Protein: 5-methyltetrahydropteroyltriglutamate--homocysteine methyltransferase
Amino acid sequence: MLTHNLGYPRIGSKRELKRASEQFWAGKISKDELIRNARQIRRQNWQTQAEAGIELIPSNDFSFYDHVLDTALLVGAIPDRYHALIDGKSNRELDIFFAMARGVQKDGIDIKAMEMTKWFDTNYHYIVPEFVKNQRFQRYSDKIIVEFEDAKQMGIVTKPVLVGPVSFLLLGKEKEAGFSRISLLDNLLTVYIEVLEDLALRGATWVQLDEPCLTLDLTEDEQIVFQQAYAKIRKAVPELKLLVATYFECSGENIHVSTTLPIDCLHVDLVRCPSQLGDILENTDFIKSDKILSLGVVDGRNIWKNDYTKSLGLIQKAVDALGEDRVMIAPSCSLLHSPCDLDLEKNEEVLSPEIKNWMAFAKQKLDEVVILSKLADPKTFKDFARQLTDNHLAIESRRSSKLIHKSEVKNRVSAIKEKDFDRESTFSIRQEIQLEALKLPLFPTTTIGSFPQTDEVRQLRANLKKGELSQADYDAKIAEAIEKSITWQEEIGIDVLVHGEFERNDMVEYFGEQLSGYVFTQNGWVQSYGSRCVKPPVIYGDVERPNPMTVKWSGYAQSKTDKLMKGMLTGPVTILQWSFVRDDQPRQTTAYQIALAIRDEVTDLEKAGIKVIQIDEPAIREGLPLRKADWANYLDWAVKAFRLSAAGVRNETQIHTHMCYSEFNDIIQHIAAMDADVITIETSRSQMELLDAFADFKYPNEIGPGVYDIHSPRVPSIDEIVFLLEKALNVIPARNLWVNPDCGLKTRHWAETEAALKNMIAATEKIREAANAEII
Ligand SMILES: Nc1nc2c(c(=O)[nH]1)N[C@@H](CNc1ccc(C(=O)N[C@@H](CCC(=O)N[C@@H](CCC(=O)N[C@@H](CCC(=O)O)C(=O)O)C(=O)O)C(=O)O)cc1)CN2
Ligand code: MET
Ligand SMILES: [Zn+2]
Structure:
């Protein structure tokens, strides 16, 4: 029974890669130094996995930014606009790579970055491959070879990992009309095969091809394409052992494809979908073959200790049907989505030993995989019996812990009534009342909440944590930042102000830290995109709000201005989605508990005199199940959780929500059902294309389509913004239109923020003038 791993966190256990990349981008270290740093992280990771006793260790799971982008470079899928960077120059690979990921704007060159989007239902973002008609691929990057050879030098023959060819195509986008990217498969395969042959020559025995798209709803054509692709690969590299990895969902009807692919090993995610084990073991094609089944039993998406008894049950079932030589043991998916190392959590005041004993991070998950394989083998079982007992005790300690269950919270959730989901009146009545109460001009201007999180602000928080700054001094500095931003917003003429979120480390972690039922880590970083990481807080028990969370700073901010100050909260679905969640109750129940906590916060803000309250739900789309059949159920409770959080206020109080980073067209009626008075939404990168959906559906409430992209330092011109606003006015009634950026400004610098917002105000004045002229 072999053990293997699908991928290890690449950021380094102390975020070494983040620091090195950001220093390189800032011109503070050389390319060679960045490459040296990266090599050290990779070698450390291989060593960690070898020491844990993992038999097949992955390589090429490392990336300087994103592994889908690595694949694009491997096969030379480099869009034309970057070719100027390659032509006639050598040693430009990393420059092109970063240009594709981040864009370039220097020395007269101005090239936009490629699009970035969510990786399945995770908070990880990948770079979307771009395809054109008759595109020819050719091998470009040697990264996969360099890493394989480097590990070999350490004495480790790794299992190189690649995004499989079919998923690579399916995850990308056609950049021109009139063709299907699937038609590019044959040519793409020639490059894959060349690479696989090279790896085989260099001594690779196994390769892992990730085909997570095998867990999605596929058309018949797409299913056939999987068969064709692997038939070709099989034929070209008969000597190489092929492992195809699926994860994040059930194989469902694709099981007929995945079990008959001409490969040596199929990996399945038994955490998300334990029932597929039975389906595969009943599949005569699979049983009769000599293929290996890799059991993904250790959860790569959460931080809870594995329940060995439960996993051993699954393993035994597979061994009984297939024999131990045809079973491998692994985490459910790449450990990219897990924090690195629980041993780094040493502060018992932050994470109590009792709760820490329930957890496993990436490094600990490796041990779990190895121990499970030893326990599943009668020859080694006895030597590991103690680990089984300890595991049993930990699982039992969590199951029966008094820390987890709070009857008041459970009772409150069961006492929720239908009317708790509804505002006092319908939107059209509320709109009239709010018009009167808030006295906002036509096309009100606002921002999404955060202003730049400068190094200074982050340093203040770091010093507070280290005890080098007192709470009082910290608060005084935050107050100063808020006041400064208010004065500035008043000066440039914004209508609905924000306080700037300077006091928040992150829009989810900040709330997690103040809710009971939550713990957080000191070092549990997980990559979100590129060098940006998040430290998801951990929900271990029933969630409750012991005290108001934002009233102090929002109240303070409102006291400093006569204008409207918007209260700023993160919504229940986003808090759920961006936390590590309980696996001992349905997500819906946890969402309702959080929703009640936010509801209390909303009503407290109202009592404190805040008249406009925004409840952000950027992750509502990301939480959507991967299979359409499961959508209705999710959307039902997700929308209700939002409504529950928002509906406790009077008609006069205006509820906003905000969404970004997703496609909303297919869930537009559910967004409408959230019944926020105003939605601000990312649209500028698609030039307001998104609005067609809002128009077709006749979205009834007020809406602020983002007028500029905040992900780039580029300052939009007044005319550009006017153009987008006019486009919006074609489909949105004037009285419903707001003016705002795409998203919060925390990742930006002040210089470009000030310039961009001034232009936004100037553009608004122009369209107001035009509208007034029309009335006269
Ligand atoms: N949770 C979450 N998911 C999200 C988003 C989001 O905002 N939050 N936005 C979307 C895009 N994703 C993003 C994810 C992260 C960041 C981001 O800026 N992350 C920061 C970390 C934010 C943070 O937690 N900061 C802490 C800790 C900062 C820190 O690094 N401190 C230093 C110490 C500082 C010093 O001594 O100089 C350290 O720990 O070493 C704080 O401000 O307090 C980063 O990687 O740089 C931005 C967007 C989608 N998903
Ligand atoms: C990822 S959505 C961000 C919303 C939040 N209020 C902010 O402005 O930062
Ligand atoms: Zn946003």
